[in-house]
Amino acid sequence: MSVPKDSPLPKRTIAPLFWLLFGAGGMLSALFGPALILITGIMIPHGWGVPERLGSYDTVLAFARNPLGKLVLLALIALLFWHAAERLFLTLHDMRVGTVTVLRWLTYGVAFVLTIVTAVVLLMVGF
Amino acid sequence: MSERRPYLRPQPRTWWAHPPYRAYTIRELCGVALAVYGAILLAGLVCLARGPAAFESYRAFLASPLSLALHLLLLAAALWHMVTWFRILPKTMPKLVWHGKLVPQALMTQAATLLAVGCSVALLALVVVVGAWS
Amino acid sequence: MPDTTAKTTIELRILRYCPSTDTEPAFGSFQVPYSDDMSVLQALQEIKATLDGSLAFRWSCRMAVCGSCGMMINGEPKLACNTFLRDLAPGPVTVEPLQNFPIERDLVVTVGDFVKKIESIYPYVMPKVPKTVEEGTYLQTPSQMEAYASFADCINCMLCYAACPQYGANPDFIGPGAMALLQRYSSDSRDGGQQARLDQIRGEDGVWSCTAVGICSEVCPKQVDPANAVNQNKSNSALDFFLSGLRKESVT
């Protein structure tokens, strides 16, 4: 069977790239998000169920200096931003706040910058 | 021949704020709450890099009632994200056929949600054990 | 006398539009004899037969098979033949043409754009290697058929398009119905047209305009689950996106 070729094929969009980052961040935070927020935001700071010293400067520094710890922090923080960037982009687009290009810079652009910032800070913390 | 003059009713600008689309918008905004949590973590890292004094003030903020309220809100958003995430999951997957029968999407959602609860509980248990042991 | 008529009639508020006389659509009200086995379609037929012969609407099978009588009933996309007055009593019942589509006249909307979208995704089996008659038929096991059977149930009623806010915002979006049909053919074991169809939906107005609202599947009268078709193809299109670089290298 011949394929009709009456109109040019649509131009490929870069959206799959953002969608993959969105999916990775969404899956990560669906699996571990509630526990992470409970641990770092509620249990450790108030010493509920775990000793408060888990949040001390020395412990956190040791974690952030560990190469594996660095990787976990970078992946977690960056993917949270990329996940939210996609969702915020779609919602702002739904609200007709601006054009697609402007909104992409406003959301994915910020996620990109924050990813770089996270990586730089993790390097500044040292090894 | 009668006249053709198709009339297109414009979509209301605020469609996303009204049922049946409101739930979808809330779901999307719960995803955005996760970025706030990411920002809190990043702020902690920045304070960590600036030294012990900066990090102590970050810890003081985390121990404040304001931070507790904020984190409870974020926790609620994260839980809703988890629930809605696995509701959509079967939509993104190929049909599963098990012994010649289609696996119902509700079952896939339940299994995945259970797995997520397991992951979160395992992480919590790990931290509690590490905390008690350290 | 007024008491008995109040019990045996129901009010239908119908959005009317006549292109040669009206500048914009406006509601007209009709009192229709009510019985609890009557569908909205029967009420419309009653109006056309006894109250206003100029009322325009599409219908054919009266049994949720042909997909002609889709309209907004109390704000929800429904098949008029499949929606009963007893569930809407005491009324009034609001009847409007399908949302997101241009209105031709009264409850009749323009479908040409939808038909073009269906044509764009090659709605037929495209065998990898066509067989001659001597070679026999294309065989398929029941479980291979199970993989696409539900997507083949689509009756092109366009209720999913009326429910989809992204189609409402962007009429160029390929939309749920065409994607369900795409999935019907692309997941057919006899088909080899997957790449050709992926090429048609890879753009901004293709599968990537979907934001997974999921309401298309909720309003579908045949449980086709177009949201499943669209989102599976997001995965397929993403894979195609990342493999396209490699493929181009191997071709040139």
From TrEMBL, chain A:
A Pfam short name: Fumarate_red_D
UniProt-listed Enzyme Commission number(s): 1.3.5.1
The protein's enzyme class: oxidoreductase
Gene3D superfamilies tied to this protein: Fumarate reductase/succinate dehydrogenase, transmembrane subunit (1.20.1300.10)
Keyword annotations: Cell membrane, Membrane, Oxidoreductase, Transmembrane, Transmembrane helix
HAMAP family per the UniProt record, alphabetical: Fumarate_red_D (MF_00709)
Protein name as annotated: Fumarate reductase subunit FrdD
TrEMBL record, chain B:
TM segment ranges: 29-48, 68-90, 111-133
Keyword Transmembrane part of the UniProt annotation: yes
Record Pfam families: Fumarate_red_C (PF02300)
InterPro entries according to UniProt: Fumarate_red_C, SQR/QFR_C/D
Gene3D superfamilies for this protein: Fumarate reductase/succinate dehydrogenase, transmembrane subunit
Keywords in alphabetical order: Cell membrane, Membrane, Transmembrane, Transmembrane helix
Protein name per UniProt: Fumarate reductase subunit C
TrEMBL record, chain C:
Highest taxon listed in the record's lineage: Bacteria
Sequence ranges assigned to domain 2Fe-2S ferredoxin-type in this UniProt record: 8-101
Reaction catalysed by this enzyme: a quinone + succinate = fumarate + a quinol
4Fe-4S ferredoxin-type domain mapped to chain residues: 145-176
CDD domains linked to this entry: fer2 (cd00207)
Record has Iron as a keyword: yes
Keywords associated with the record: 2Fe-2S, 3Fe-4S, 4Fe-4S, Iron, Iron-sulfur, Metal-binding, Oxidoreductase, Tricarboxylic acid cycle
Cofactor binding remark: Binds 1 [2Fe-2S] cluster. Binds 1 [3Fe-4S] cluster.
Cofactor: [2Fe-2S] cluster; [3Fe-4S] cluster; [4Fe-4S] cluster
EC number per UniProt: 1.3.5.1
Pathway: Carbohydrate metabolism; tricarboxylic acid cycle; fumarate from succinate (bacterial route): step 1/1
Chain segments annotated as transmembrane: none
InterPro entries reported for this sequence: 2Fe-2S_ferredoxin-like_sf, 2Fe-2S_ferredoxin-type, 2Fe2S_fd_BS, 4Fe4S_Fe-S-bd, 4Fe4S_Fe_S_CS, Beta-grasp_dom_sf, Helical_ferredxn, SDH/FRD_Iron-Sulfur
The protein's assembly and partners: Part of an enzyme complex containing four subunits: a flavoprotein, an iron-sulfur, cytochrome b-556, and a hydrophobic anchor protein.
Record-stated family: Belongs to the succinate dehydrogenase/fumarate reductase iron-sulfur protein family.
Name this polypeptide is given: Succinate dehydrogenase iron-sulfur subunit
Classification of source organism: Bacteria, Pseudomonadati, Pseudomonadota, Alphaproteobacteria, Hyphomicrobiales
